[in-house]
TrEMBL record:
Belongs to the SMC family. SbcC subfamily. Keywords: Exonuclease, Hydrolase, Nuclease. It comes from Catenuloplanes nepalensis. This is Nuclease SbcCD subunit C. GO terms for molecular function: exonuclease activity. Residues 332-344, 352-378 have a biased composition (Basic and acidic residues). It holds the Pfam family AAA_23. Heterodimer of SbcC and SbcD. The keyword Plastid does not apply. InterPro entries: P-loop_NTPase, Rad50/SbcC_AAA.
Length: 997
């Protein structure tokens, strides 16, 4: 995937529409102040490809810019699989709808919708988002993700980057095809197993069984018709007999009751209870009249009335009011005393404060003198450190020049050897091609002879020639047809040999180019490092004079070390004097603070007392308003409040005596009403409830008699009158009981007549059954068996005729499908166990680590290399290191080397990584490491890839041929290409520091 054009608006700090044209660009830098929006350009590319953020977020809507129209729009034109594509996406804060569209610019394909667009883009670029941001788009602070990934995560990422995911695709397609075909074949076998073993033989046998069943069915049907009439008569008679027995049994079970006698006794008891209730009503009437008169006298002051609590409430409130009046008088006296004491303390603080201010001013002046001395000391120390670092850099650069000179000679020797090897391989390839040409000419001659032999087969002297139509001469013998096998094998061997030689030549050419490039890089590094060493030495000489690099730094810096020692002594003296002044000023300030604290405490106490007085007066006013009007004092004093409280207490006692009399009357009334309730309860328990039970028993008897009388067609009984007295109900119960006894006798006689009829009908049915052809089975079972056998035979006959062509088709389809399924199963087993794919990934991984080692060796002057399991070999210690032990700069170098190696391997392996995006990270490198890192990026550009780098480093901006400048203003961020003039100005700037401060 290679970006060509990017257009976006409403993205984070970008409000207006921005357009970046990457066409024709190779190495691009992006610069701007912190927070201007540089990283947002990478976020826009990621959102265009995947519709998501590069960071954890609940929704992509967090990318929508504040201050715009609430809409995020991104459009990316990119190249993938040999075609140009355009993806456009749009989100809105105000709407849940979103727009996602992918189209090929040649019009051959269009996709709409988020999911289908994402799926197609992942197919085109061969990467999911997680792999993309770990290996192609390296975010700020996330360079090490690929380096620190787990083995399983790396395997997944490498599959997509190096084009190995095609193995998963082939395995998945084979598995899907097998899984789709296997159930189909299984269903065919199930369908075949569900068919008859031999449909043709089954059809013939079923036809015979149908004829035999028809004859038996006809005979059994006639017998069943005769038995049906007898059975209907038996059913009616049996139903009548069972109904009679059921009703007789129910009536007999409930008829044994003494309910009529019980109702008569309950009538007598009810009359006695009514007399007792009249006597209680006579006692209650005068008591209720006395209670009502007393309640009328009390009025609203009755218990629970609106004025019932007035005397008690007034007595309680007046007691509280008296206490508040006394507390207010005491608080007012204490307020006057505290006011006089505070005014005395305020007069003594002025002199102490003036002395403290003089000492504070002197301390401030002394602190500034001490700071000036310390700043001079610090300046001298930093200057000495800078000169020591400069001397160290010069020594290191000088050693580096010697090392690079030796490495250049070694690399030039490697290139000469590789060039000689290339020429040898080219000569061998030419010889192999000549051998292939000879083999092809030989096999063509053999084919011509073979064609002539077949054409002349069967011809005799005198026959017409098939080519010229002339007669064949006497003695003509057809030519022999030579075998082609040997010639074909010779050609096959010649071509294989030529291919091997061509592969070796390609490898030799790659090696020759690699050694040439490495030698050129080493030469450039040697030139740059020599120039750096000369420049650094010149700068130090101008600052320090003559320098002897073979002697210790203290010799070259002796005068400046003496000046630093004098500055340190002066700073110490200033510090001692400052400590004395600070102690004096602290003592004076403490005295002022103590006096101020005392005044503040008295002020707070005075304010507290004043607040207390105001609060007490407010509470007195509020409580006075709450006292009932008849007891409320106009101007509360201790004496007046006490008198009113005594009056309220006396009123409360008199009201209590009246309430006591009322309570006594209520108790007597309640006792009589309780006795009357008990009498009512006794009537319910001993008269009403037993009467209802006896009534229900006799109603059950009446119901049972009515059901039996209806079946015997006798007159019904009279109904119970529930409004009548218990004496009348007792007489009705006695009449019903006599009628029920007569109905029982009539019912038993009718049941005996029905039993005799059933016996006669059973004899007739047995005679019919014995004459029918049942084969020893019951008649209905024999008939059902015959009908079932005929149905089974008919179904078997029809099924067999239907299954004959189906069986033939099943056999043909199974025989044609099985071989194809066996082949798919073998392929799935090869790719599905993971061993084949894992082996390929492991092989490519080792190649990747080899390429990454070559890159990181160049960036670290041969110090670092990658181990087989992504550990780092450190040449300084001679041992492997875990990547977690690397410093920030070392981690960046390893991550960058790994990313560049991934891009190289992906391209050489048919992968899709044609771009690389780097966000910051260069600030952790020193000048030398930065130079080699930028050289490594230039190698990617030379290979035809697009590299986009975000950085604050001046050296990075100077290295790139094209530069995007990002700026932020009140109207939002903007991005533009730097002009030629701006690029020239950057190139003239010195140093390797940041672009923006």
């Amino acid at each position: 995937m290679r970006p060509l054009e990017l257009t976006f608006s409403g993205l984070r700090s970008y409000i207006s529409r921005q357009h970046i044209n990457f066409r024709g660009q190779s190495l691009v830098g992006i610069t701007g102040e912190t927070g201007a929006g540089k990283s947002s350009i990478f976020i826009a590319i990621n959102f265009a490809l995947f519709g998501a953020c590069t960071f954890e977020a609940p929704t992509p809507k967090v990318l929508i810019a504040d201050g715009g129209d609430g809409t995020l729009a991104v459009e990316l034109v990119f190249e993938a699989r040999g075609k140009e594509w355009k993806v456009s996406r749009r989100l809105s804060k105000k709407s849940a709808n979103s727009h996602h569209r992918l189209e090929a610019l040649d019009g051959s394909e269009t996709r709409l919708g988020r999911d289908v667009t994402n799926t197609r883009i992942q197919q085109l670029i061969g990467l999911d988002q997680k792999t993309f941001v770990r290996s192609v788009l390296l975010r700020q602070g996330k360079f090490e993700q690929l380096l620190h990934a787990s083995p399983a995560e790396r395997a997944h990422m490498l599959k997509g980057l190096l084009g190995l995911d095609i193995l998963d695709t082939i395995g998945r397609q084979a598995r899907d095809r097998r899984d789709a075909l296997a159930p189909h074949l299984h269903k065919l076998r199930e369908r075949k197993a569900a068919l008859l073993d031999d449909p043709r033989a089954a059809a013939a046998q079923a036809a015979t069984q149908i004829g035999q069943a028809d004859e038996q069915i006809e005979q059994l049907g006639a017998a069943q018709e005769q038995l049906a009439g007898i059975h209907a008569r038996c059913v009616d008679a049996e139903n009548e007999r069972m109904r009679l027995l059921e009703l007789i049994g129910k009536l007999a079970s409930i008829l044994d009751t003494d309910a009529p006698e019980q109702l008569k006794r309950l009538a007598e008891l009810g009359d006695a209870v009514a007399v007792m209730d009249g006597a209680l009503v006579g006692e209650l009437t005068p008591l209720r009249q006395r209670r009502d008169g007393l309640l009328a006298q009390l009025g609203d002051r009755r218990p629970g009335g609106p004025l019932a609590d007035v005397p008690a409430t007034a007595a309680t409130a007046l007691g509280q009011l008296g206490e508040l009046v006394e507390r207010e008088a005491d608080a007012s006296s204490r307020f006057d005393t505290e006011t006089a004491e505070m005014r005395a303390a305020e007069s003594s603080v002025s002199g102490a404060r003036e002395e403290a201010e003089k000492l504070a001013t002197l301390r401030k002046d002394t602190e500034q003198d001490r700071k000036n001395a310390a700043d001079r000391e610090g300046d001298l120390e930093r200057q000495l450190d800078a000169w020591r670092a400069g001397l160290r850099d010069v020594r290191e650069l000088t050693a580096r020049v010697t090392q690079l000179a030796q490495q250049l000679r070694d690399r030039q020797s490697d290139h000469v050897a590789a060039a000689e090897k290339l020429e040898q391989q080219r000569a061998a390839v030419e010889e192999a091609h000549q051998a292939v040409t000879s083999a092809e000419e030989a096999i063509e001659g053999q084919k011509r002879l073979n064609a002539a032999a077949y054409a002349a087969a069967g011809l005799q002297p005198g026959d017409a020639c098939l080519i010229c139509d002339h007669e064949l001469p006497d003695g003509f013998v057809p030519p022999h047809a030579p075998g082609l096998h040997d010639a074909e094998q010779a050609l096959k061997k010649a071509r294989a040999h030529a291919k091997r030689k061509a592969d070796l030549t390609t490898a030799a050419l790659s090696k020759e180019r690699e050694t040439y490039t490495v030698a050129e890089q080493k030469a450039a590094q040697l030139t740059d490092t020599s120039e750096q060493a000369r420049s650094a030495l010149t700068v130090l000489t101008q600052q320090l004079g003559a320098i002897d690099l073979d002697r210790h730094d203290d010799h070259n810096l002796a005068p400046h070390i003496e000046a630093l020692t004098a500055a340190r002594e002066q700073t110490a003296a200033k510090a001692a004097y400052l400590e004395e002044i600070r102690n004096s000023a602290a003592k004076a300030a403490a005295i002022v603070e103590a006096i101020d604290k005392d005044i503040a405490g008295r002020t707070a106490q005075l304010k507290k007392i004043q607040i207390q007085v105001v609060a007490l007066r407010k509470r007195i006013t509020t409580l006075t308003q709450q006292i009932p009007a008849e007891y409320r004092p106009e101007r509360p004093t201790t004496e007046l409040v006490t008198r009113l409280r005594d009056q309220a207490t006396a009123d409360r006692l008199r009201l209590g005596e009246q309430w006591s009399t009322l309570t006594q009357l209520s108790t007597e009334i309640e006792a009589l009403e309780t006795r009357r309730d008990q009498l009512i309860e006794k009537r319910a328990d001993q008269v009403t409830t037993p009467a209802k039970q006896s009534q229900q028993r006799m109603l059950d008897v009446s119901t049972g008699y009515a059901a039996l009388a209806a079946l015997l067609h006798t007159p019904p009984a009279t109904q119970l009158d529930l409004t009548a007295d218990l004496t009348a109900q007792a007489q009705w119960a006695a009449d019903i009981k006599d009628l029920a006894r007569g109905a029982l006798d009539a019912g038993r006689a009718r049941a005996g007549d029905v039993s005799s009829l059933l016996e006669r009908l059973a004899i007739e049915a047995a005679a019919i059954t014995s004459n029918a052809p049942t084969g020893g089975k019951p008649l209905h079972a024999a008939y059902d068996d015959a009908v079932g056998r005929r149905a089974i035979a008919t179904k078997t006959h029809d099924t067999a005729l239907t299954q004959i062509p189906v069986m033939d088709d099943m056999v043909r389809r199974i025989e044609s499908t099985q071989p194809h399924l066996d082949g798919l199963t073998a392929l799935v087993e090869l790719l599905g166990n993971g061993k084949f794919g894992a082996a390929v990934v492991q092989e490519r991984q080792q190649t990747l680590l080899g390429a990454a080692t070559a890159i990181i060796r160049g960036m670290t002057l041969g110090r670092f290399a990658f181990g087989p399991d992504f550990q780092i070999f450190d040449a300084h210690t001679g041992s492997l290191r875990d990547v977690k032990t690397l410093s920030g700069g070392e981690t960046f170098q390893a991550s960058l080397a790994l990313a560049l190696a991934v891009v190289e391997q992906a391209s050489s392996s048919g992968g899709k990584a044609e771009s690389l995006f780097l966000d910051e990270g260069f600030g952790s490198l020193d000048q030398t490491a930065l130079t080699y890192a930028l050289d490594a990026l230039s190698t990617q550009v030379a290979a035809g890839r697009l590299v986009v780098v975000i950085s604050h480093m001046l050296a990075v901006a100077q290295h790139v041929p094209a530069l995007l400048r990002v700026s932020n203003a009140a109207a939002g961020s903007t991005v533009r290409w730097a002009t030629d003039t701006e690029l020239l100005e950057l190139a003239d700037e010195a140093g390797a520091g940041p672009l923006h401060t």
